[in-house]
Amino acid sequence: MTINKQHLERLLVVLILLLAWGLRWVALRTVPPGWRDDDLIELYTFSQAILEHGPRLYFTGASGHEPLYHTLRAGIIAVAGLNLASARWMAATCGTLSVLLTWAVARRLFTRATGVLAAGLSAVSFWSLMYSRVAIRHIGLLPWALLALYWTWRILQDPRPPRGASWGVALGTGGALLTYYAGRLLPVLIPLLVLAVGTREGPIWRATKQRGARLKALAWGFGGGLLLAAPMFWTIAHLPGSDARVSELAVPLTAMRQGDLRPLWHTIWGTLGMFSVHGDPEWLYNISGRPVFGWGGAVLFYLGVLTRLAHLDQPNARLVLLWLGVGIAPAFISLPPASYGHTIVALPVVYILAALPMKAAARRRPRTMLPLALLTLALVAGRDLPDMFRAWPQDSMVRFLYRADYRALADMLNQSPAEFCAERPLAVGSFLFGPWDKVAVQTDLRQSGCALRWVNPERALVDGGGPTPFYLQDENHRQPQIAAWLAASPVISAPHGMQGYEVTVPDPPASALRHDARGRALAAQPFAGSLRLKAVSWERPADGATWWCATWWEVIAPLPLPPEELIPNPPPPGVYSGPRLKVYTHLLAADGTMITGDDGLWVDPYSLHPGDRFVQWHRFTVPPDSAAPATLALGLYDPKSGARWPLPDGGDELRVSALPDGD
Questions:
Q1: Rounded to whole angstroms, how far apart are CA atoms 264 and 5?
Q2: Which of 451, 380, 656, 653 is nearest to 537 (CA)?
Q3: If you ran DSSP here, which 8-state letter would residue 627 be given?
Q4: Per-residue pLDDT band at 610 (split at 50, 70, 90)
Q5: Which run of H or of E encompasses 428?
Q6: pLDDT digits (tens, 9 = 90+) for 244-288
Q7: Which residue, 16, 1, 2, is CA-closest to 113?
């Protein structure tokens, strides 16, 4: 029976696409094991912001972000809501589309078999799967870049370039530029390809009757792509500091301008070894240092490179080698070296090159094609899939970076009876103590009515007015007195990776100060009618240099805070991204001069409710030659505006004795 090669090819491509789609969705909640800052920043401050405030030409936050990917995902979130599936749908789709277009490009450049194998390798590769499973925009670049290269090749090499090819180049170039800053390689790569590859009849400088038509079509497409992105670049040019990412990453170039070539040499050498020696060092998107290929895959990749070097007279060889060189070039001049994100334009051609030895061997012995293709696929999949789904997500550093413990907490709460959340307050410890821990849990939490108090257990402890379930992580980062209180608290069930306690904030010790320097009761003087200081207690070690002060608080009314805002990190130029409430504590000498201070609020004020209580510890290092502390000045203020919270008597500061207990 004769097998129709075209039908077989289509069947294999469909099966590969189904495999690619499935691998990008399986184990959705465990790979990655939680949310990374970058995921949440792009979801909330870009895609969600588009739904709330309208489209943008450019996002100046997080060192600059192109708008297209976030705009497309905003449409998905508008329909499906913001959840794990809608957050990652774009990445999975773009990853699968890049597999399809890798097949289309490779088959045009070489053979059907090369295209099918290159698509299969891309489908199962750790590199592609990683960026297809996180909620960031990197993988969104590949379909556009592949589209531009596909139609560029057809304009240059087809006997009769199809009508509409210019549109393909325009959409691909414009889409790449509007998706990720590595897309700026396209305006470099395409002209270089025209010069190096030439037209079907020969190099562009050799006169041919079709040369003008081909170059005109390519110019229209390339120019159209630049025109699509022109409003974004106009915006960047008129917003000072908006495109900070390039300068932030190009540390080796900065060093080179100062006469130091060592950082540049380090990044070049590290990047050249990314395929077999030492890969991306960041645990965020790799098993740190893991190269793209194991020894078997690396041999095939280097054979693919060598065979193309031996056939530089062929346009397709020149194209793939130029594509590879330009694609990895950003990692030569940026940090970290061998970054898989910075080199993502090269991802498809890397797997095309790894598929080429099968093509060369099968030409001599056609019957070996299938075994060789299966062996090549097994070499990559047998290493990459276990690393992707087992080794990487289980690593302790990955679990920390992706907040796996907080996803486990959200899962535990989702499985709890509704009254567990609705009828009692809960508290969560956060050592990073920024907004994104809280947002990570809220994004995964489906249980309504959960009111979580957030506290940094290095400095504070909180309860909801009585015994409160408290979940926290590392046992080693706790203020000693807080650690002692927790050790005496009942232990409760907690998700994997966390400890659980039933916490009640202790009453201030009998020796604590409950009156200010003028003898007035502290508790009778609430700040802004909502937050009252109950007591101040002191502790001083024998050396006399370090003083600890505990302040005891109670929430008596909703706090008059401005609306909570989520600001990307780094923030847009000139945008404040810090806390909106702090406690200042200043040690004063007898003459009123300030000796030292310790400002901070280690409880998230937006998570507090009336009836909540908390205690927090302030640390003071007293210089040995300073005057003796006499008074503690204390108040609340908004660090953004500098405005202080008022007291009932019209003042805004309390002063208490700075003598340690018992003195």
A1: 48
A2: 656
A3: P
A4: very high
A5: strand 426-429
A6: 666 656 667 677 777 777 878 888 999 999 999 999 999 999 999
A7: 16
At how many degrees (to 10) do helices 84-109 and 435-444 cross?
90
Rounded to the nearest 10 degrees, the angle between the axes of helix 112-124 and helix 369-386 is 20
Question: Comparing C-alpha atoms, which of 537, 493, 522 is closest to residue 653?
Answer: 522
Helical (H) or strand (E) element with 331? helix 315-332
Are the CB atoms for 316 and 108 separated by under 8 Å? no
Task: Read off the tokens for 323.
Answer: 């594509």
Give the residue from 640, 458, 615 showing the smallest Cα distance to 534: 615
β-bridge pairing 460-463 and 491-492: unpaired
Are 142 and 125 in contact by the 8 Å Cβ rule? The answer is: no
Residue 279 has, within 13 A of its CA and on its CB side, a CA count of 19
How far is the CA of 84 from the CAs of 28, 43, 47, 394, 578, in angstroms?
8, 11, 14, 19, 27
pTM for this entry: 0.92
Query: Residue type for 283, please?
Result: W
Write out the two tokens for 232. Answer: 């974004």
524-539: b (≥16 Cβ within 10 Å) or e: eebbbebbbbbbbbbe
Closest CA to 127 of 349, 296, 334: 349
- Give, for 426, the enclosing helix (H) or strand (E): strand 426-429
Question: Residue 43 has what DSSP assignment?
Answer: I
User: What single letter denotes the amino acid at residue 38?
Assistant: D
Which pair of structure tokens corresponds to residue 514? 């409950």
CB neighbour class for 307 (10 Å; exposed up to 12, middle 13-18, buried from 19): middle
Structure tokens at 649: 């008597």
291-304, pLDDT tens digit by residue?
Answer: 999 999 999 999 99
Residue with token string 């229209």: 220
Of 22, 121, 132, 20, the C-alpha closest to 384 is 121
Asked if residues 495 and 405 have their Cβ atoms less than 8 Å apart, the reply is: yes
Q: How far apart are CA 88 and CA 73, in angstroms?
A: 9
Q: Domain extents for the chain?
A: 5-206+214-236+247-399, 403-503, 522-657
Single out the residue of 127, 514, 479, 166 nearest to residue 291, CA to CA: 127
Instruction: For residue 300, give the nearest of 263, 350, 256 by alpha carbon.
Output: 350
Extended strands (E) in 490-628: 491-492, 499-503, 531-539, 546-555, 582-589, 594-597, 613-621
Query: To which residue do tokens 């904030």 refer?
Result: 505
Is 153 strand, coil or helix?
helix
Read out DSSP for 74-136? HHHHHHH-SSHHHHHHHHHHHHHHHHHHHHHHHHHHS-HHHHHHHHHHHHH-HHHHHHHSSSS
Q: Name every residue whose Cβ is closer than 8 Å to that of residue 380 and which is 6 or more positions away in sequence.
A: 121, 124, 125, 293, 297, 354
Q: Show the tokens assigned to 606.
A: 């937006």
C-alpha dihedral (313, 306, 358, 285), degrees to nearest 10: -120
Residue whose token pair is 């000498």:
589
pLDDT reported for residue 207: 46
Backbone angles phi and psi of 609, in degrees to 5: -130, 155
Question: In this structure, are strands 499-503 and 491-492 parallel, antiparallel, or unpaired?
Answer: antiparallel
Amino acid letter, residue 364: R
Q: Which fold has domain 522-657?
A: Coagulation Factor XIII; Chain A, domain 1 (2.70.50)
The residue behind tokens 């709330």 is: 52
d(CA 468, CA 489): 11
Q: Give the model confidence (pLDDT) of 486-523 as tens digits.
A: 999 999 999 988 999 999 999 999 989 999 988 999 99
Q: Which residue has the higher pLDDT, 436 or 369?
A: 436
